[in-house]
């Protein structure tokens, strides 16, 4: 990680940390700028995050929803891509530390996003992985599929029920999508593959601390989503907070009356909380509770006009409404694009007495629930059921990176729709050793 | 892992260990038998091994060449699939130990295959992974792609040459295919994605201890394959044995004169030696040097007529020619099918004074070298170049498991052929932390 700095080369360097929606949009907005754009990401690929849950639930392969960042920016000659970990940044010295090496910049754009936050319980991560990267998705896929394998040969009723209980924590779009997809796997995709246990008996529980799922949507759509989930067989538990988590159980406390309940489960998935990547904190700027850097209206960091924070990692306020940009793909793309254009204009030497303020334009939001079920909100319009699902499919295909990925994803979806099966039911990665048998079991011959 | 054994149920149990070509063929041959067939594999998926190198070289995704074993056998109602590790087998007691649990059988079919063998140097495995599973393939892909990433920002000429030197050890079909594919990645697929280093300068070295590559083929085809590889830019070193291996270099000794040479390389791949999975040894039967169990003409283990070994794990002799069945897909399929039919006939109560002997029918062999280059040997016919490559593609598509996988693989190949790019260039898995910078580097600002 050492982009060389030739002093004779007069191009100012724009260092972008993060190759997600925000970082890519920023790099692309700088495509005609007379600058040396350096984009750093710890992975070599851009992930289309809205479809990550489909990799976790074995519908798509990693390559269907991800593309090498280098490939995406291959034609942008002023942009260099580096794979590495941006550890911290010293805004006064205009230097960032990447893989232990100090890298100078003229402009810094932090677009490193969020990772899973466990509300002060980092030990929960081992028992309930979240869904932020391809590795996360493959790990969650491994865990889900492994539970069905174990259940098939579990003779104890209680233990088998725990093997077949899946708890999704967090009722936002990711949680709703995960819960619906796991229910579909158990009820539709795999029953005919097993001989001893009816996998349709699996229990999928969706938990949220609010009184409704999809809090970001209109109440009608929340109700519709909940009804659809329940019709599919998902159990929705609202108004409860997780207070305990192990590889054996999830403990909930009802917010209203403090009553606790324990769900025996061998597989929990975290879709509840996020916190900002730590590089933002090294700026020394003020941050909100989730670690997002509080930015000026132009998305720069107070006191450092050449340092910007975009995407999920920023905490902004709309100058008129006072509302924060939501942590969705559109917010990331729009803020990245805004800063990229702003820097491009400055580099052209345009007067910058007023940089203007970033304003988020809500183009709508949607969440899919299952086969031919979704909810969508576009402008004032609210759609649910099959039309929403069709809309969801079209929009996600349109925005999926790369011609090749679009075709591949479409063909997987069509195949899944007509065959009711999921193509990517592969368990990869290194599983923990199964526990040794008890003494009684060791004596028994099966 | 406890298929229950109901004494009232009279069906004899056939326990098959391994869901590769041999195990699957055996299970399928038993589809009409009045038996309880139990197939155990440590993975949940069958891998189409001949295309594994394409996953390692980022052309295909795991789901393109693998299918869940359960799905493949979903319609065979007399067959139960279990995911687990078969640790050992006691042929006298008719019991095998699977995940620590004792499982009884009436017939046992070992089809566990081979793993990478390092000729008494197990410590080499960390520096030169072999290619036997999807996890292996993803690990090799990660290593190859990571070297290009590191080379892009390596300023020291010597270190960069080591980053860009790929050593493939073993000149059989897998080694030839790997070397050709890595050369194509460096020369064709990725150069336009990098800014600082010309990846076409990468050096791919193929090493074999024999005097020619593809020893199993006719000499003319060996020569042709070597010429094709060299034209593509691969360096072929013959008659040399590896005597040292680390993450920094590969040391070779020429067999003819004992002269040593050292190749500085950060990425070596093992395609040289295999040894049989250890469960065969627990039978107490005689084994050959690679650990393959020496079997009777009917593929049973001497002294245990109800225990068979098939596929790569067996060491057989053709009753007429005295030749051993080669460790290829056809050998595995034919031997698995032979034993499956034999057991099915016995279960029908047919007279078994003579079980007959297994005879391998060579349907030909082929190896691909690169874009539109391959060699093939079918009957007495020898083909090379584009016709052989077309033949290779057609045969591999025909035998690829599952309709869906065929379509997906065809579309990936067509795309790769027209676009010169590789779709699955994703680095997944957990990489080791990069080394910290030296003191000089830490002081330097890039």
**Alpha carbon gyration radius of chain A:** 23 Å
What is the mean pLDDT of chain A?
A: 89
Could you describe the largest sheet of chain A, including whether it forms a barrel?
Answer: 6 strands, mixed
Secondary structural class of chain A: alpha/beta
Please report the total strand number of chain A as a whole number: 25
Q: What percentage of the residues of chain A does DSSP assign to strands (E)?
A: 15-25%
Separation of termini of chain A?
56 Å
Low-pLDDT segments of chain A: 1-5
> CATH first level of the domain at 122-272 in chain A: which class?
Alpha Beta
What's the tally of helices of chain A?
Answer: 12
CATH topology name of the domain at 122-272 in chain A? FAD/NAD(P)-binding domain
Anisotropy-based shape of chain A? globular
Summarize the amount of helix of chain A as a percent range.
25-40%
How would you portray this structure in words?
Chain A has 446 residues and is an alpha/beta fold. Among the domains of chain A are: 13-42 and 84-116 and 275-347, 3-Layer(bba) Sandwich (FAD/NAD(P)-binding domain), CATH 3.50.50; 122-272, FAD/NAD(P)-binding domain. Chain A is built from 12 helices and 25 strands. In chain A, the strands form 8 sheets. In chain A, strands 5-2-1-9-21-20 form a 6-stranded mixed sheet, with helices on one face. Chains A and B meet through helix 3, strand 5, strand 8, helix 5 and helix 11 of A and helix 3, strand 5, strand 8, helix 5 and helix 11 of B.
């Amino acid at each position: 990680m050492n982009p060389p700095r030739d002093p004779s080369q007069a191009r100012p360097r724009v260092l972008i940390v993060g190759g997600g929606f925000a970082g890519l949009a920023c790099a692309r907005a700088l495509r005609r700028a007379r600058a040396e754009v350096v984009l750093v990401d710890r992975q070599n690929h851009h992930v289309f995050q809205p479809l990550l849950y489909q990799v976790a639930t074995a519908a798509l392969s990693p390559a269907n929803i991800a593309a090498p960042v280098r490939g995406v920016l291959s034609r942008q000659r002023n942009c260099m891509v580096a794979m590495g970990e941006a550890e911290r940044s010293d805004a006064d010295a205009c230097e960032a530390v990447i893989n232990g090496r100090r890298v100078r910049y003229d402009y810094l754009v932090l677009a490193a996003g969020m990772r899973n936050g466990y509300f002060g319980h980092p030990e929960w991560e081992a028992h309930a992985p979240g869904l932020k990267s391809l590795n996360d998705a493959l790990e969650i896929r491994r865990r889900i599929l492994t539970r069905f394998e174990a259940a098939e040969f579990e003779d104890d009723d209680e233990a088998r029920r725990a093997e077949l209980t899946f708890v999704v924590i967090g009722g936002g779009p990711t949680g709703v999508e995960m819960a619906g997809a796991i229910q579909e796997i158990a009820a539709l995709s795999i029953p005919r593959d097993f001989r001893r246990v009816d996998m349709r008996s699996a229990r999928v529980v969706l938990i949220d601390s609010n009184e409704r799922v999809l809090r970001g949507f209109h109440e009608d759509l929340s109700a519709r989503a909940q009804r659809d989930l329940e019709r599919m067989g998902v159990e929705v538990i609202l108004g409860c907070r997780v207070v305990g988590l192990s590889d054996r159980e999830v403990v909930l406390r009802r917010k209203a009356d403090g009553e606790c309940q324990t769900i025996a489960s061998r597989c929990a998935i975290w879709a509840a909380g996020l916190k900002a990547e730590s590089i933002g904190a090294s700026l020394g700027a003020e941050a909100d509770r989730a670690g997002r850097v509080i930015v000026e209206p132009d998305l720069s960091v107070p006191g450092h006009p050449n340092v910007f924070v975009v995407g999920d990692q920023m905490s902004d306020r709309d100058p008129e409404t006072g509302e924060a940009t939501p942590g969705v793909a559109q917010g990331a793309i729009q803020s990245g694009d805004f800063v990229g254009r702003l820097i491009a204009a400055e580099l052209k030497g345009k007067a910058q007495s007023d940089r203007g303020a970033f304003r988020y334009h809500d183009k709508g939001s949607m969440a899919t629930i299952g086969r031919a079920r979704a909810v969508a909100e576009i402008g004032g319009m609210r759609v649910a059921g099959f039309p929403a699902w069709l809309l969801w499919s079209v929009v996600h295909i349109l925005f999926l990176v790369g011609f090749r990925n679009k075709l591949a994803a479409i063909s997987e979806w069509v195949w899944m729709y007509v065959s009711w099966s999921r193509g990517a039911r592969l368990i990869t990665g290194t599983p923990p050793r199964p526990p040794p048998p008890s003494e009684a079991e060791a004596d028994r011959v099966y």
